[in-house]
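Narrative of activities, Objective 1.

The group set out to show that a structural description can be obtained from nothing but a protein's sequence at a throughput compatible with the screening campaign. Below is one input-output pair from the validation batch, recorded exactly as produced.
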Amino acid sequence: MSTSIKSWATPLAVGAFTISAVTGLLIFFDIEIGLVEPTHKWLSWFLVCGVALHVISNWKQFTSYFSKKPAIGIIGAALIVTIAAVLPIFGEEEEKENPAKMAAYALASSSIETVALVVKTTPMALVEQLGKKGIVVNDPAATVEQIAKSNGKEAKEVLGDILASTKGTAKNDDKD
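Output recorded for this entry:
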């Protein structure tokens, strides 16, 4: 059985490494065209499987590396880098949030008057656009959260309606 594993474990590992290396380099250089990122993420499993099968089929040779100092050093360094990469102490703090999410929270807690400035329209135009979607705005000084609550909706839903209805407005005639 080991012979049959060997016959396709190494080609699988090499092929998957090629995919992972090319897509990884493209991602590194911010060339994310087509399906580069999902291909890199999902086909990495082929690399994991190929290398695991390669190690299994060459187990005796693999274990012999643990008696050689250079091999132990390289494998040990790789393990240290891997562990350091997944520890939260070197990355972003847990309290930090996605900037887009923070911006959405800020807009949701802002008045229609303020949101209108951000999307480069008038408060009355926003009130009209929300009215067309069945959302009643009694006071443009009310926050998106307050408007959502009074209409039995989630703030993110109302904010989504505002942003969808003003799509492209902020891009046009931007002289700020």
